[in-house]
Amino acid sequence: MNPHDAIEAEIASFEALSRGATASGAQAFARLLKLAEERDSGQIARVARFIAATYNGTAFPLDPVELRAVDVSISDDMLRCLDALRWARADLHTLAPDGDARVRAVIARWGLRGPEGD
User: Cα–Cα distance between 96 and 35 in angstroms, integer?
Assistant: First the structure.
């Protein structure tokens, strides 16, 4: 394989990984968003904080220890979201129907405030 072909193959591989991670992250984000909209428990408060962090990490910093304080299925979805963010194809809230308004509503519902009262 010549160097150009190797580079093209690597680019194609990364493209496939990126698309897969984005699709998986979008589905995971939709599940987490639905939990934060419809349920009420200590775990779901953590989900709401995670959603806020993916929406605006400056205003709502992410504490990675939160991944240890929720059910495995929830933390798996959080990790899927982080993988999608790593590939940076899209902001997660833009992949959910009416995502911006829904995330803002979750932030308000859970009374979340950033370090500067955001």
Answer: 14
